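In this supplementary section we document a worked example of the pipeline. Step one takes a protein sequence of length 584 as its only input; no multiple sequence alignment statistics are reported here. Step two produces a three-dimensional model, which step three serialises into structure tokens for compact storage. The input and output of this example are shown verbatim.
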Amino acid sequence: MQDRLPRKLAAILYADVAGYSRLTGDDEEGTHRRLSKYLDLISDGVAEHHGRVVHYAGDAVLADFGTVTEVLTCATSIQRSLASQNQKLPDERKVQFRIGVNLGEVIVDRDDVYGDGVNVAARLEALADPGGICISDAVRTAVGKKLNLSYEDMGEQQVKNIEEPVRAYRVTMETQEKPKTSGLAKPELELPDKPSIAVLPFTNMSDDPEQEHFCDGVSEDIVTELSKISKLFVVATTFAYKGRTVDVKQVGREQGVRYVLEGSVRRGGDRLRITAQLIDATTGHHLWAQRYDRVVQDVFKLQDEITREVTSALQVELTEGEQALLWASGTQNLEAWEIVIQIPELLYSHRKGNVLISRRLAEQALQLDKNYATAWTMLGTSHWEETFNGWSENPDASLKLAMDAAAHSQSIDPSNPNTYALLTWIHLSLRKFDQAFDLAQKAMALGPNNSFVVGVASDVALFCNRPHDMVVLTNKAMRLCPIYPAWYPSSLAWAYLLMNRSKDAIAPAQTSIDIDPDYPFNYMVLAIAFAELEREQEAHAAIENLLRIDPTYSLRTFSESQPFRDPEVLDRHIDGLRKAGLPE
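The serialised model returned by step three reads:
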């Protein structure tokens, strides 16, 4: 009698592209390029959540996991990452996956899995919405209330080649496109006492949607240069308005600025057309407009010209030092620049797999231009992120790699505020607090309108137990970036915690969760606050969410990676996390 094939209980993920034939019919090459990139994101996500890709079948992916929390956390993380990638594309070019998740017995044969456990996952995938997730009753029962998700009962479904009906549930997720604001009210923004400007994302007028990153890079670089001018007030590029028809007056009110710069980019072959216009948001009147027709290689000169024209139109008098900073070059290698402009979105996503992808991109850019200071800074940041998040097996080696990359960047461009921000973070992790403070001050001096470096300065105040300074700096960062990242309200929560105002920490932490439910430091501060308030059930729920994001996180990880200067502060936080249930 033939031996019975081995079986196991597995949590199965099956993902497939919605409308793949139509997409390839409309744009075969572009769809294939996007599909290849997205499959890499999916495989990295599976590995990050301790799963295994069993096989690929054209545009489909089959993966298995040990637990339902890992598979469902992975599925939601994948869909959020892909939604972020698709956000910049027109609807007809978006590559969207449906995902089905099932818990069941499977047959294992030659590293592949078979049986109804897999078949049900594939049938659930077909029931999911594009960009959505559909799970079986077995998954819904097993996951319970462990994850911060909602589930819509779809009833019993009769699916192909499965004899018994399958009860299915639709997973509903909060998206970053419509962040909640219930936790922390935004005050009405007053106009600053100096010329203030917001730069809208430049519109892609090319036929190729792949040029979105190029357009975003143009906008970001103009913001970067304008941010170096102390006599201007510049808010971050407002990507929340991307792809929308906007009322410039409304933008001015929401961002608290008087002027708005908007424009468009058309790229065809080796030719480039950029239009830009500066508008007074209080009246809607155009102050200045220009159209530039050049070769693509002139994009860097064009960015400088636009910045000069804007400062001239605003009649901002620059000091000699600011003039030098304003026209400091980054790279003249267009291919390297186009790689680097993809990195920030990945690097600051707080996901291990994305940080590793950003490192590979930085290394590719440096192979093309070894003197690209920004690429060195991003490479160094990827190594520091591993240390700070507790992902590095050798933190000392990771910090040395980060320091070496920062030194390369600084030797090329000593005026880059983001490099000083990276050095600030590195010195915090080295417990060199006085040097970190000095570096943060230097970063803010070089980038007076740079909300990111102000946020880094707030980190120094956090780890040096100066919560009142944290509040001032975080509010300044929010003012410079009114549509702010989750990091900023989370910093307010930590500040209130340091002030022994545990109850007040809850609202900003919840606001941060509404913006990014996968930012782990939200749940750390919530767990401590709830533990100190004797709200045991909510404290445990916060830790469950933290472990959903990083199942290996522990008290030891927190103690070794978080550089609190005062041992008593560190001990207090560890006690709170221990009471909340974080493993040793």
